[in-house]
Each structure stands twice: as structure tokens, then as C-alpha cells.
Write a structure and sequence with these properties.
Blueprint: E1 2-5, E2 8-9, E3 12-16, E4 19-24, E5 31-34, E6 47-51, E7 65-66, E8 70-73, E9 78-79, E10 85-92, E11 96-107, E12 113-122, E13 128-138, E14 142-153, E15 166-174, E16 177-186, E17 191-194, E18 198-201, E19 204-205, E20 208-213, H1 226-238, E21 243-246, H2 253-262, E22 265-269, H3 287-302, E23 308-315, H4 323-339, E24 344-350, H5 356-363, E25 368-372, H6 378-384, E26 390-395, H7 400-409, E27 413-418, E28 433-437, E29 458-459, H8 484-493, E30 498-503, E31 510-514, E32 522-523, E33 535-542, E34 546-551, E35 554-560, E36 568-574, E37 579-586, E38 589-597, E39 604-609, E40 613-614, E41 622-629, E42 644-649, E43 651-657, E44 678-685, E45 690-697, E46 704-710
């Protein structure tokens, strides 16, 4: 009998019946213990887990305790050990694919055993796709790896647009009995990467439209419910992303399973530090002793996921270019290749004074060079190292165009990952925009001050403390709504022809100061009461060649847009209530339009569920959004209302909150304040079939009510 913890943060000690099974320092890797020697055959067995999350050990919100799944597995003395099945696809074409399977077999008996290893492949429709079996003698108290290959005609290939999955059923047969079996999902795809042709998935050039993502699930905190992990991938796909970098640690198994099923590429990252600390009590204290076990945990667990295309061995490692750091990188890269020869290795390298040459040692043992905030180095580094594959592993949101342009133009630059795809807990106020008095003689926005990454605004790394608790630098906010940088990125990537936002009016005598990871305070709103007649900035982005702006049917102006303008145009418009419409033009013909309508007074609460039917499973969830609307159903974008959620029937309220980065109310509270007119309730089934009723009420507003089915 074996117990497996998908993740415990951190320094966990596990006992069974008073016997210490072991200690596991790292909070993000999966680990297991054999319970068999310490089990009582009669009476009660007591399993105890202690967590010591002490000192300053993380640069973001880590959570604490058992925050991922725990599994209990029982097997016989002849078994497939955990992660003992490896599936690779060394030869792939549309006509044929070779599926190579390596099965590790363990014999815990005192004599050699003859076993049959039987393979049965199924496609996504559960139709048989091939079988194979092989007899093998397993030595006493030993391991043997059995390799077999199955050739599939006309395979269904896995890709981001068509994530076709297969399933391998592996059986161990001793005598006439099946003594162990394991089910392994996998995908058939061919990944090629080189500096001459870039990244190809099944022969098709693919550019990584990427986002970095921390492990938390917004208002659920660090809890890794299956549905919360799946929903994050759905949001990423809906926003045009095709790749995620797991920053800066391995994710949960369900996260990767969702990436497989939905077609999301993954850079699977192991560590945020090696031997040099970023915090006094962080992973550097145990790196030397634990890096092999933790790297093996990530790679052996995750190697069968078709979504995983690169292993990352570190992020912004302080010693990256020093002799000791180069030695560590070599050890990590070689061990990664030993565990999985099919994937390349990268790391996220940040800049250093002295230019690209000074960082060359940091790239020496990387198969793919990960560049954090170093887009100006791409072409100069390519001159020195023409075979270096370059990947933008982090970039500033306001440099969306500047970071994507070389990805499109240069074959050796295979993609870019913005920091970040979604808002996350911790690194508070990283992406803030604040109003400051007009500068006098110097400071951000004044002559000689640093230029903003995107140009046009004041710039300064002004990080704020309490009540900020949220990074606020993502394209998607804490409850899953699109932020202005997300709208703009859609245009840059070509997934949207037109997007329009309005900057919140800036009071006279004030200026907006934005951090390097920040964005101007913009909304999809034309509701600014009290600013009638005042000029406001309307920002339009389009892939057309012109944009027209109309206010209440009258043309405000027409401006050209192109790559030279980074697809952007800005209009100064005297505010008047009504309809603001942007029209994208190409060659004199409209290709897209978007309107913003002034909302009236808030009158009611509208509830919208992401799914109206959920399974009777505590790991399933329904995300119910509350919106404050006027009598015509228009969202009132700046409405702040204390919404009380009442959940009855076959479900409970798991969490409630808003995307406000400065509202420190507990997510366990049942009455969050709305932010930008919205808040969110997460409903969790109790485990039995039935109905769940969700009611939302606030003073002076008509209540909202919605019913969910639990099946």
C-alpha cells in the first residue's frame, strides 16, 4: 500500500502509527511513501502529517499544508511502480506512428517470476487502436524494464487545434491472473525545434503565444480543485494563448491533464532558485540534497503529457553565469536528458550588466535559451550564436507589440510569455497604476526620466504595500475577466480585428504613473458621470488600416493604424453620455465594429454561471458571476455593491470575492463588494444529486437568482 501526495507546502513530515515515513522539503513536487511495513493488520491505523511553513521562503503566495490531492494505491508483490510506464512517439506522420512503451516491472517476491506485459491502446472514442504483449522473467526482489512498440496506421495527431488523445492500458499477468494494471493517457505528436526553422508541431511552424502562470486559483487560494485547474486552461484558450510557462514550479497533475485535453502547450518549470537564496528560508537550503529527487519527480510524473514540450530547470537564478551556476546547469540538463531524452531543456535567464557576452555562460548548457525582458538582445546574440534557439520566457505587458514582432519575424525566436497570463496572489501591486501630482523638475514622466516600456506614460517601479495583496499584472483578472492588456494582446496576435478601451479620466494636476509590469487604468466603459464635457482618452487597437470613432452617430475622427503605430490609435473625446462606436476599416471597407453604451443607474443583480450542471463530486465547481446592471441590462462598470450570496440545496459556497487588488476581505466571506461592477461566487457540490439555488442580494437592488443541477 502506497500513499502519494501531489503537493504539500512545505517541509512535510509524515508518520504512520508513530513511525516516521519521511520528510519532503519542496512544496511543489509529488512524493510517495510505502505504508506496508508499518500497517496494523487489525485495529486503527493513524497517519499524521506535519507541515513547517516557516520563515521567508517564497516570493509569492504559496499557500500552506496539503493543497493538492492525496492518493492511496494498493498493489500486489508484482507490480508497476509509480510512474513506471513511459510512452513516446519516435516516428510520427499522418500515415503512420510508432508508439514506444517502456514498462518498469517490480518483483517484491523472493523468487524470479515470469510475467506477461500486455498493452492495449484506445483512441479518444474508446475504440481499440492496437494491442501487444511480451513475456518477461523478473528477478527476485528486483526491477526489469520491458520495451514494446506498436505501429498505428493513420494516427489521430495531438495538436493545439486538435488535441486528440489516446489511452494505454497496461496489464501485468502472472500465471492466469492480472496482478496489476495502469491506465496512461498520451498523445501522438512530433515536436521539432531548431534555430533555422523554429518550433514545429507535427511539421507545422508554431509560435508560442504564451503566458506565465503561478499555481494559485484566484479566490480559492492555493487549493487545486480539478475544476479550478481546468477552468484556468479554458480561460487561456479563450484569450488566444496556446502556451503556459508554469512559474516557477511544477503544476498539479490535473493542470497538465487539462492542457492535454484542451490543447495547451506547456513549459514545465522545476525551480526558482538553486544554491543562492532569494529568501532566507527558501529552497536553496536543500537544493544540493534534493534537486535530483525533485527534478525526477517532475519529469517522471509529467513525461507522458503531450502538452509538455520543454523542461525548464530554473528561473532568474542569481548564480546563472558564474562557474558554479554553469556547473549546476550542466548537471540539471544532463539529468533531465537522462530521464527524458525526447524533450529539450530551457531556463529563464534575466539580464546582467555588461551585455549579452556576460550572460553567454548561462546559456552554455541550455538547448533553448530563455530570455526574460531582453528583447533587444535577440538579434545581437544571434550574430554571435546563430544556432541558439531563443524563447522570450518573460516580457512586460506594455511591450506586447515589441515582444511579438521579433517572434513573427525571426525563425529562431519561437515565442513569448507575458508576465503574467492571470493575476495571482502575492508580489503585491507589481502591476499597479497610480495617480501622482504633476512632476516638478524631475521624476517619472519628466524629461530625463525612464521611458515607459510601451511609451506614452510615466514610468516607475512603485510597489505599494497594504492593502494591496494581488500582483495585478495579468491579462486576466483574479475572477477570470479580461483586463485591458488582454484586449490589446488579442489584436497584436491577430485573434481580434478591433478592441476599444477608455482611460479613466485623470483629475487636473495629476499624472498616471505605471510600473514596468503595469497598465493604464482603462475600462471597456463609456459611463463617466460627472465628467461631462471633459476630454477623455479613447484608445483603439485594430489590425485594419484605419479606425473611425463615432459618438452618438457623429464622427469624432479617423486615424491610421499599422505595424508602425503598433496597431494603436488614440482619440481625445469630450465626454457625453450615449454610444461610442469604433469601426475598423481595411481598404475603405468596414471589417469590425465595437460599441460602448452609457449605463444608467444600477437596478438589479444578474447571475451568470459558467456551467449550469455539475457532477456530484467535491472536485467539481460552478463559477457564478454576479453583475450589477441597469434596467436595460447594461453592466454598470464602476458600481460598488456589497453582494450577499445565499447558497442552498445540494451545494456550498466554496469562496466569494472580486478582482479588486486592494480589497482584503476574506474569500470565505459571503458578502464581497463588487469591483468594476462584478464579483464571483464559487459553488461546490456536497456529493449528492439534486438542485442548488444561488441567490445574490444587495441593498437597493433587485436580487438575482439562479439554479444549478447536480447530477
Amino acid at each position: 500500500m502506497e500513499i502519494t501526495f501531489d503537493g504539500v507546502y512545505r517541509n512535510s513530515d509524515v508518520w504512520l502509527n508513530g513511525e516516521l515515513l519521511g520528510t519532503h522539503p519542496y512544496g511543489y513536487t509529488t512524493f510517495s511513501y510505502d505504508l506496508t511495513p508499518h500497517l496494523r493488520r487489525t485495529g486503527e491505523n493513524v497517519l499524521a502529517v506535519r507541515v513547517r511553513n516557516e520563515g521567508k521562503n517564497s516570493r509569492w503566495y504559496s499557500g500552506s499544508g496539503i493543497y493538492r490531492h492525496v492518493w492511496l494505491d494498493t498493489t500486489g508483490k508484482i507490480r508497476i511502480p509509480k510512474w513506471g510506464v513511459s510512452v513516446t512517439t519516435p516516428d510520427v506522420s499522418k500515415a503512420s506512428a510508432t508508439v514506444k512503451v517502456a514498462v518498469k516491472v517490480e518483483n517484491r517476491t523472493g523468487s524470479a517470476q515470469d510475467v506477461t506485459v500486455r498493452l492495449h491502446l484506445f483512441d479518444g472514442n474508446n475504440d481499440s487502436a492496437g494491442t501487444q504483449e511480451l513475456k518477461q522473467s523478473i528477478p527476485a526482489t528486483g526491477f526489469t524494464e520491458v520495451e514494446q512498440s506498436v505501429t498505428l496506421p493513420n494516427p489521430k495527431l495531438w495538436g493545439t487545434a486538435t488535441p486528440q488523445m489516446y489511452r494505454l492500458e497496461t496489464e501485468l499477468i502472472a500465471g492466469a491472473n492480472v496482478v496489476d494494471r495502469m491506465s496512461t493517457p498520451f498523445g501522438i505528436r512530433k515536436v521539432e525545434i531548431d534555430a533555422q526553422n523554429g518550433l514545429r508541431i507535427n511539421g507545422e511552424v508554431t509560435k508560442l503565444r504564451g503566458g506565465c502562470m503561478h499555481h494559485d486559483n484566484g479566490i480559492l487560494g492555493a487549493c487545486a480543485y480539478d475544476r479550478s485547474e481546468e477552468r484556468r486552461i479554458e480561460l487561456m484558450k479563450a484569450h488566444g494563448f496556446n502556451a503556459i510557462r508554469t512559474s516557477h514550479n511544477p503544476p498539479s497533475p490535473m493542470f497538465l491533464a487539462s492542457c492535454d485535453r484542451l490543447g495547451m502547450l506547456v513549459v514545465d518549470e522545476a525551480f526558482d532558485q538553486w544554491e543562492v537564496q532569494k529568501n532566507p528560508e527558501d529552497y536553496h537550503l536543500v537544493f544540493a540534497e534534493w534537486w535530483q529527487r525533485d527534478l525526477a519527480s517532475m519529469i517522471l510524473r509529467d513525461r507522458n503529457h503531450p502538452s509538455v514540450i520543454l523542461w525548464s530547470i530554473g528561473n532568474e537564478i542569481p548564480e546563472r553565469a558564474q562557474p558554479r551556476g554553469v556547473e549546476i546547469a550542466k548537471n540539471l540538463q544532463e539529468y533531465a536528458h537522462k530521464l527524458d531524452p525526447t524533450r529539450l531543456v530551457t531556463a529563464a535567464i534575466n539580464s546582467a550588466r555588461g551585455g549579452g557576452e556576460q550572460l553567454d555562460p548561462a546559456f552554455l548548457h541550455l538547448d533553448v535559451g530563455g530570455y526574460n525582458y531582453m528583447i533587444t538582445n535577440y538579434e545581437t546574440d544571434h550574430v554571435r550564436h546563430p544556432d541558439r534557439i531563443i524563447l522570450g520566457t518573460e516580457s512586460f505587458p506594455r511591450q506586447a507589440y515589441a515582444t511579438w514582432e521579433p517572434v513573427e519575424r525571426l525563425p529562431y525566436v519561437i515565442g513569448d510569455f507575458t508576465w503574467t497570463a492571470m493575476d495571482y496572489l502575492g508580489e503585491s501591486s507589481l502591476g499597479n497604476a497610480q495617480l501622482r501630482p504633476a512632476p516638478r523638475g524631475g521624476g517619472p514622466g519628466a524629461p530625463g526620466a525612464p521611458a515607459a516600456p510601451g511609451g506614452g506614460f510615466g514610468y516607475g517601479n512603485i510597489y505599494l504595500s497594504f492593502p494591496w495583496f494581488n500582483s495585478y499584472c495579468g491579462d486576466i483578472d483574479l475572477i477570470g475577466e479580461t483586463k485591458p492588456q488582454g484586449y490589446y494582446r488579442r489584436v497584436v496576435w491577430g485573434t481580434s480585428k478591433l478592441e476599444m478601451v477608455v482611460q479613466r479620466p485623470v483629475p487636473v494636476g495629476r499624472t498616471e504613473v505605471i510600473t514596468a509590469w503595469g497598465w493604464s487604468d482603462e475600462l471597456r466603459s463609456w459611463t463617466w458621470p460627472g465628467y461631462e464635457g471633459r476630454t477623455v482618452a479613447v484608445r483603439v487597437a485594430s489590425t485594419g488600416d484605419q479606425v473611425r470613432l463615432l459618438l452618438n452617430g457623429k464622427e469624432v475622427g479617423t486615424k491610421p493604424v499599422s505595424r508602425a503605430t503598433e496597431y494603436k490609435a488614440e482619440f481625445q473625446v469630450p465626454y457625453a453620455a450615449g454610444e461610442l462606436k469604433a469601426i475598423a476599416m481595411q481598404g475603405g471597407q468596414p471589417i469590425a465594429e465595437q460599441s460602448l453604451t452609457t449605463a444608467g443607474k444600477p437596478t438589479k443583480i444578474r447571475l451568470v454561471a459558467d456551467r449550469s450542471s455539475v457532477r456530484r463530486d467535491r472536485n467539481d465547481l460552478s463559477y457564478v458571476k454576479a453583475e450589477i446592471v441597469d434596467d436595460k441590462g447594461n453592466l454598470v462598470p464602476d458600481a460598488v455593491a456589497p453582494v450577499s450570496f445565499i447558497v442552498s440545496g445540494a451545494g456550498d459556497l466554496a469562496a466569494a470575492g472580486s478582482a479588486n487588488p486592494k480589497d482584503v476581505a476574506s474569500f470565505r466571506s459571503k458578502s464581497p463588494n463588487t469591483y468594476h461592477g462584478r464579483c464571483l461566487a464559487i459553488v461546490q457540490p456536497r456529493g449528492k444529486a439534486g438542485k442548488v439555488t444561488v441567490r445574490a442580494q444587495a441593498p437597493g437592488l433587485e436580487s438575482g437568482i439562479i439554479q444549478l443541477d447536480v447530477t
